[in-house]
User: Fold this.
Amino acid sequence: MKRQRIHHTVLLICFLVLPAILAFSIRPSGKYNLDFFTTHNQFYLCDSAFTGTTGDTTFWNSDAQNARLGTTEDIIGVKTASYGHVRAELSVLNTADTEKDFGKYDHVVEGSVKLSSGIMEVLNFPDTKIILKAIVTPARYRVRIYSYAIKNVNPDEDEGTDHYKITLWPAEGRERKILKGYKPE
Assistant:
């Protein structure tokens, strides 16, 4: 009887503890295609429990406008070329993005976002409708945004030729960094 109770206790511990250990030891990754409508040439990537504010004057200051990336601790804003329609692919990586040839892109920028809740969201603007909700390992992430076909896009038009490739991976480092800058003609 005592042996059977020990056996059940061990099984119970395995069923309760093992999934939790596996959940935190396996880093979720995935690739998502995004096709949605936003306004005012921007959308957001954030923690589901974000506390940062995009209305602060430092969020879209001149440096952020030039970088095409607004940042706070737990929310980033991506500046788009066209006013409304966004087409993008987003990849959650387990290790740093190794792409170094930026020739086919018009603009490449990196930033940082803390996703402490373990749920990443992509939101449109201004109504912050959830476009994507994905499970990630709670951590600070580097985020790289590749912008292409942004030349000759009318920023007041809903439709444009612009596309975005977004990669993020767990990493420290908080500074915003332009890897290839777009200079309108």
About this structure: The longest strand covers residues 139-148. The radius of gyration is 20 Å.
